[in-house]
Amino acid sequence: xxxxxxxxxxxxxxxxxxxxxxxxxxxxxxxxxxxxxxxxxxxxxxxxxxxxxxxxxxxxxxxxxxxxxxxxxxxxxxxxxxxxxxxxxxxxxxxxxxxxxxxxxxxxxxxxxxxxxxxxxxxxxxxxxxxxxxxxxxxxxxxxxxxxxxxxxxxxxxxxxxxxxxxxxxxxxxxxxxxxxxxxxxxxxxxxxxxxxxxxxxxxxxxxxxxxxxxxxxxxxxxxxxxxxxxxxxxxxxxxxxxxxxxxxxxxxxxxxxxxxxxxxxxxxxxxxxxxxxxxxxxxxxxxxxxxxxxxxxxxxxxxxxxxxxxxxxxxxxxxxxxxxxxxxxxxxxxxxxxxxxxxxxxxxxxxxxxxxxxxxxxxxxxxxxxxxxxxxxxxxxxxxxxxxxxxxxxxxxxxxxxxxxxxxxxxxxxxxxxxxxxxxxxxxxxxxxxxxxxxxxxxxxxxxxxxxxxxxxxxxxxxxxxxxxxxxxxxxxxxxxxxxxxxxxxxxxxxxxxxxxxxxxxxxxxxxxxxxxxxxxxxxxxxxxxxxxxxxxxxxxxxxxxxxxxxxxxxxxxxxxxxxxxxxxxxxxxxxxxxxxxxxxxxxxxxxxxxxxxxxxxxxxxxxxxxxxxxxxxxxxxxxxxxxxxxxxxxxxxxxxxxxxxxxxxxxxxxxxxxxxxxxxxxxxxxxxxxxxxxxxxxxxxxxxxxxxxxxxxxxxxxxxxxxxxxxxxxxxxxxxxxxxxxxxxxxxxxxxxxxxxxxxxxxxxxxxxxxxxxxxxxxxxxxxxxxxxxxxxxxxxxxxxxxxxxxxxxxxxxxxxxxxxxxxxxxxxxxxxxxxxxxxxxxxxxxxxxxxxxxxxxxxxxxxxxxxxxxxxxxxxxxxxxxxxxxxxxxxxxxxxxxxxxxxxxxxxxxxxxxxxxxxxxxxxxxxxxxxxxxxxxxxxxxxxxxxxxxxxxxxxxxxxxxxxxxxxxxxxxxxxxxxxxxxxxxxxxxxxxxxxxxxxxxxxxxxxxxxxxxxxxxxxxxxxxxxxxxxxxxxxxxxxxxxxxxxxxxxxxxxxxxxxxxxxxxxxxxxxxxxxxxx
Length: 1066
Ligand SMILES: [Zn+2]
Fold this sequence. Notes:
Layout: H1 10-25, H2 29-36, E1 45-48, H3 82-87, E2 93-94, E3 102-103, H4 104-110, E4 135-141, H5 153-174, E5 180-182, H6 185-194, H7 197-208, E6 212-214, H8 229-246, E7 254-257, H9 265-273, E8 278-281, H10 286-294, E9 299-303, E10 314-318, H11 326-329, H12 334-337, H13 364-381, E11 386-391, H14 401-419, E12 425-429, H15 432-439, E13 448-450, H16 472-501, H17 508-528, H18 540-568, E14 577-578, E15 580-581, E16 590-591, E17 598-604, E18 610-619, E19 624-628, E20 636-643, E21 646-660, E22 664-672, E23 679-681, E24 683-687, E25 699-703, E26 706-710, E27 717-722, E28 725-728, E29 731-736, E30 753-754, E31 763-768, E32 772-781, E33 784-793, E34 802-810, E35 815-822, E36 830-835, E37 839-844, E38 856-858, E39 861-865, E40 869-875, E41 879-882, E42 888-896, E43 915-925, E44 937-938, H19 943-953, E45 957-962, E46 971-973, E47 982-991, E48 994-1001, E49 1030-1035, E50 1057-1065
Parallel strand pairs: 1-24, 3-13, 4-11, 4-12, 5-6, 7-8, 8-10, 9-13, 20-23
Antiparallel strand pairs: 2-44, 9-10, 14-45, 15-16, 17-22, 17-45, 18-21, 19-22, 20-21, 22-46, 24-31, 25-26, 26-27, 27-28, 29-30, 29-35, 31-32, 32-33, 33-34, 34-43, 35-42, 36-37, 36-39, 38-41, 39-40, 40-43, 41-42, 47-48, 48-50, 49-50
Helix pairs in contact: 1-2, 5-6, 8-17, 13-14, 16-17, 16-18, 17-18
The chain binds zinc ion.
Residues 144, 146, 259, 531 line the site of zinc ion.
C-alpha cells in the first residue's frame, strides 16, 4: 500500500476527473476546470483515485487546527465539577421499581398473540353485569372532526364542521337535559369567530352548566408516535390559551384521544401538566385491550416509567371495543349496536341496519332491554359500575335532523329503563367529566399501569407501523419548522424585552402584525400534529396543503428571526438573509451562494457553549476566507460544493469552526484574501466502477478518536472506531417488498432485497480535509436514487463524537427502503426507542409477532447496547425503527405503495418527493461496573447523546449581510447557560415584556462517562438574561385555566418540565 499523495501532474488528472464527474453527474469539463483553476494551495484540489494507490491515510493534522477560535466569551463561566453532573445522572432501575401494578411490557410478553379479527365476536360468552349491581350509563354525543384527512382543514370546516357545531348548539338550546362534548380548538375557533355575541353567551352558559364540555383542549388531537414534545406542548398551549382568552367557561378537564394510532404515556404526563384530571384513550392493540377488558382493568392510573412516587398518576379509561363510533361503543355486539345508530334515519351516508326501528310504545320494552343488555355486558368489562357510551363518529351530525333522531329515539328508552327500578340502572346524557366525576371516588378499584401502547394493531397482523415513516418529506419539514419556530420565539421574546424596556417608540401596527405572524406559525405547526397530518395518512392534495402551510410558516419565522436579530444587534441595515434557503415547499434546502465579501451572523439558541462546524457556499472562482470579527484566524477548510450527491461546479464550500456562547448572536467576516495562511484545503477523490480493483482497501474517514471505514466498492459502512474501540456495523441498504402496505400499515410480503452488497459498485466521492471528512455514495436501484453522505468532524468536543449520515432518497419504486446496521453488539433481543423525544422505552423482539409488529416509532432516538458498548441513532425527523436480530438496528427511510390498506384513505402513497433524512450515529463505551444485565429497565440517553441531539434538532442559524460602515458586535450573549442537564424548551412570547420560559430536566445515564466539558455556573433564573434589565419571575402553569401547577418547582427533577412567566422591567 502506498500513501496517497498530492499529484503534481494536475493537468492529466483533471482530465481524468472531468471524465469521471461527467459520467457520474453530467457536469461539463468547463465547469470543472473553472473549479480547478484557483490554485494549488488555496482552493479545492481534486485527485483521481487510482486503484494502485489505494490506501487512504488519516489526513495529517494541519497547523491550523492548533489555532482556536478567538470568539470572545461574553460571560465568565467555570466548569461544573464533573462530580456534580455525575451525581445527577439516573441509575437504571428495574421498571418494577416504579411500583405500578401493571407493566404493559409484561403483558405483551405473557399474552398469546393470535392473528384474529376482533371485529367479529369481541367477547364471546360475555355475561352482563348482574341486575343486582347498580349501573350508571352516560350517553355522550360527540363528533370526531379531523382537521384535514380526505379533505383539507378549511374544506372540512365549510362542508361539515360549521354545521355540526351549529346543530349541536341549537339542539342543546332546545333540550335542557341534552349534553355534548367537542375536542378540536382549531375548528372551534373558526366557528366561534362567526358567532354573534348571543351565541357566545349561550355557549358560556352551557359550559358553566356542564352541558357542553371541551375535552383535551388541544389545537388538534395529536398523533402520539411521530410527534416531538416541543410541538405537543405548542399545540396544547395554542388550544388552552385560545380557549382561556376567548371562551373562558370551557375549561378542559378530561383528556380525549380516540383516534391516534397507538398511544404514548407522554400524553399522560402532558395532560397532568395541563391540569386535566383524567383521560380517555381508545386505540390499543386488540389482544392487550382484550386482556385488560377481561380482567376488568380498563380503568387504571397511568404512571410514568421513571416515577416511583405516583405523582404522575392520572386516571385513564380505555375504550373496551375496537372503534369509537356508535356502532361499536354500546356493547360487544356491533350488530346490536347498529340497531341503535339512529342517525342513520336521517343521514344517507349510513347504511341503516335492517333491524333499525324507531322507538315506539310497541317495541319500547324489548328495545330497552336489548340495549341495556349491551350496556351491562360492557359494564362487565369495566370495574366501576358505570359506562359511558360515545354517540357519534367521524363528522357526525352534519344534517340538522340527526340529533333529533338520536334524541327522540333514545329518550323513551332512557325513561323506560330509569323508571323500571328492578333494572337497577340510571341512564343520562353526559359528558366525559360527568363519567370521571362519577367513578373517581372509587380509587381503590383502579390499578396503576406503566408502559406504552405501541405498536397498535386493530385486527389480524395489521400493525400500524407504516405511518412511523409515511410521507417523510413533510415529517422532515415539520422538524425544520419546529426548530425555526423555537428560535423565532426566543429571539422575538428577547427583542421585545429590549424594545419595551428601552421604551423605544414602536410601530404599533407592525408589532401587531408580527405577533399575528408568529401566532399563525404556531397554529400551523399545531395543525400538523393532527393524527392525519404528521402521520402522512391524508390524501395527496391535503398532504400538499399541509406542506405549503409548513413552508409559509417556516418563511415567516425566518423573516421574524432576521428582524429580531437586526433589532438586538442595533443593525441599521435591512438586508439580513439566511444562508440556507428553500425556493418552494417541495424543494430541498440549499445554499445561497455568496458572491462577495459579507458579514456572517451565526445564532445559537442552545443554552450552553457549543462548538460546531458551520458551512457556507461561495462562488468557486473567488478567493475568500472567514475571519473573526476583529480579523482573527478561524479554522476552516475549502471543499467542493457537493450536496445530495451533486457537484455544483460554480461554487465551493467553506467549512469553518465556531465556538458559540449559550443563546447568542455572533458575527464573522467573509473577506477577500490574496495570501491564504489560515485555510486548509480539502482533497477530493472520485471512485468509479471501473477504477477500483476487487482488492481495494477500505476508505477511512476521521482520525484519532473517531474513525470510520467504508467498503471501497459499495461505499457501505463497515466499522466505527471510537477511542480505540471498534464496532463492526456492516451496513445494509434494503428494500422491503410491501405490495400490501399502505399509508398506515407496514405489511412486508417477504425478505427485503439487498441494494448494497460487496458486489455493488457505487459512485463514491470522497472529500478529506482538516476539519471534516465526507464520503458521498450514490446508489441506483431500478428507477430510484439513494445518496448516502457520511461526515466525520476532526475537532474536539461533543461535535465530533458522532458519525453524521445523511440519506437522500428519491424513491420511485414501491417498497419500504431501510438502512440496517448489523453490529457485533451483544444486544440480545432488546432495543430502546424514545417516546416523543422525552422518555426512553424498552422493547424486546418477539418472534410471536410478524416483522411489522416489531417496528416502533423513533421520534428522535433509538439505541442497542451490551455491557460495554452502546450504539445510538439520533434522527432529525421521525422514522420507524426495529432490531430484528441481536446486534441489528434498522430504520425505514422512505416508503411507496400502490396499495390502499383499507383504513379509509382509499389509495396508496405514490407522491414521494426527494427527501433527506439525517441520522447521527453515536458509539459510546459503557462502564462495565455500572452496566447491569439484561432485563426490563428504565434507560436514559447519555448526556453527550442529549447534547448531540440538541444541536441536530437546533443547528445554528446562519445569515449574511452586506458589509457596511456599521460593524456589528462580535458576540451578543442573550442568556447565560442553563445547567448542562437542562434544556431550553422554549421562551414563548406572551405579550409586551412577558414570555413563558419552559425548561426540561434531562434524564441521563450513569453508565456512560460524563467526561465532557460543561461550562456552567449556578445562576438564578432572574439572572439568566444578560441584557441590562431586571426580571420578575412567576410560576405559571402550562394551562392558563389552572392556577396551581404542581410541576413548578425550583428544584426541577429529571424528566420534569417547568413553566415560568418572565417579565422584563426597567
Ligand atoms: Zn381522526
